[in-house]
Write a structure and sequence with these properties.
single chain, 169 residues, alpha+beta, 5-stranded mixed beta sheet, 3-stranded antiparallel beta sheet, 4 helices
Length: 169
């Protein structure tokens, strides 16, 4: 694994190659480093105390992918993180999501609540009619086993759309 470091002389991220030389980091390397940093910062038991914190976490985890990734934050009764799981991977404009698998994982983790999320590689976080229908279906299915759906956040680059904030949940 490459080691990233910050170069103070030109304000760019550098990565050390196998020969020990420093080279400019690629966008993918920078995004991977950001994902690792957020994983270290937001570990199991971290409380999501504000919508802004949730959005910051999800932007770091989901922006930059060139394909759709459908992820779920499984939470306990105090909205503390049990696990972040990228459950489904799709294409550039869609991902197949299976409610049965989401319920199985929620029960396995003994989750009391979830925040569902996915990215829009286009960078535009506006929910589609399919996004709205899927959210309703997941919320209803999870409610059958007493798991609350707190939000569905769509990440488009650095922008987000929250179903809860828009009254769509």
């Amino acid at each position: 694994m490459s080691q990233l470091s910050f170069s103070s002389f030109d304000s760019s991220l550098l990565v050390r190659d196998a020969q020990g030389r420093y080279l400019p980091a690629s966008v993918d390397q920078i995004l991977d480093a950001a994902r690792q940093a957020i994983d270290q910062k937001m570990q199991r038991g971290t409380a999501f105390t504000s919508p802004a914190l949730v959005k910051e976490y999800l932007v770091t985890k989901l922006s930059g992918f060139e394909h759709e990734v459908f992820a779920i934050l499984f939470l306990d009764t105090q909205h503390r993180l049990i696990e972040y799981s990228e459950m489904f991977r799709g294409t550039i404009d869609s991902a197949s999501v299976y409610p049965r698998e989401v319920v199985k994982e929620a029960l396995l983790l003994n989750a009391a609540a979830v925040i569902i999320s996915h990215n829009h590689p286009s960078g535009h976080p506006e929910p589609s009619s399919a996004d709205k229908a899927l959210t309703r279906r997941l919320k209803e299915t999870l409610a059958l086993v007493d798991v609350r759906t707190l939000d569905h956040i769509i990440v488009g680059g650095a922008d987000t759309t929250s179903f809860a904030e828009r009254g769509l949940l």
